[in-house]
Specification:
It contains seven helices and eight strands, in the order αβαββαβββαβααβα. The chain is of the alpha/beta class and 247 residues long.
Length: 247
């Protein structure tokens, strides 16, 4: 299954639709490239959707601003050359990178990365328990996403982390994870039941977060597919967890 092509197909399908709010008004998007929350039937979309920087002027490496005070990363809009990054920061955005790596069928590691040296960064190791299926890269990536969603859902709307945030961009270099989050699939040989179960549970957690945002009590979640290079710092964090395990 070519998940990169699947993501492109999802983007094209969304672009072909005319989105509308249930009130009959056009959906208002917080930023270009954020796919709307309402489908053509005026029903609230329960699927976590994509942030697609290709439909904006944003470039990943040039568009992130790390706030040392809050120790979090945000988007900024480099439109006015006379405006500094600090002045152009979109405080309504929060960017979190997730990454998982599998060393063997018995050991894997995960990381949630907020920015360089951030005290909010987390990483850890997964061990295969007796009777469990072998660990793999998907399980490690899913654990990283699970930890990020837990941070978002448990922080609370009034917490220092989320008090000014409208939406969270979860970045990952795993096209498999992004595709599974934005387009539910049935179990197949390429998408076995165990993976389907794990990813369906994660999708349900995102939908729960989205439902609170829809009611004005939470933040929206969007998935941002990035390159391996762009997730390099999160990858290093995963490596640190594995190094500690082997030390």
């Amino acid at each position: 299954m070519n998940t990169d092509h699947a993501i492109d197909g999802i983007k094209d399908a969304f672009d072909a639709l005319t989105f509308a709010h249930p009130s009959g008004e056009e959906a208002r998007l917080p930023l270009p490239g954020l796919y709307p929350l309402f489908n053509t039937r005026g029903a609230y979309c329960t699927l976590p959707l994509l942030f697609d920087p290709a439909r904006t002027h944003y470039i990943y490496s040039e568009t992130l601003f790390y706030d040392k005070a809050s120790q979090t990363s945000h988007l900024w809009s480099p439109q006015d050359p006379g405006v500094s990054r600090a002045q152009a920061v979109d405080r309504g955005s929060l960017v979190i990178c997730v990454k998982g790596l599998c060393r063997s069928e018995h050991t894997a590691a995960w990381a949630v990365y907020f920015g360089p040296g951030s005290e909010l960064n987390e990483c850890g190791v997964l061990h295969r328990a007796d009777g469990d299926p072998p660990l793999n890269g998907m399980r490690a990536e899913a654990e990283a996403l699970c930890r990020a969603l837990h941070i978002i859902s448990s922080a609370g709307r009034e917490s220092p982390l989320l008090c000014d945030v409208i939406w969270v961009a979860i970045t990952t270099d795993s096209s498999y994870i992004v595709s599974a989050m934005v387009e539910p699939k049935k179990p197949t040989n390429e998408y076995p039941l165990i993976e389907h179960t794990i990813l369906s549970e994660l999708r349900a957690r995102v939908e729960d977060i989205e439902s609170h945002a829809h009611n004005g009590n939470g933040v929206h979640v969007r998935f941002w597919h990035v390159s391996r290079k762009e997730s390099g710092e999160a990858r290093k964090l995963v490596g640190e967890a594995l190094d500690v395990l082997n030390s």
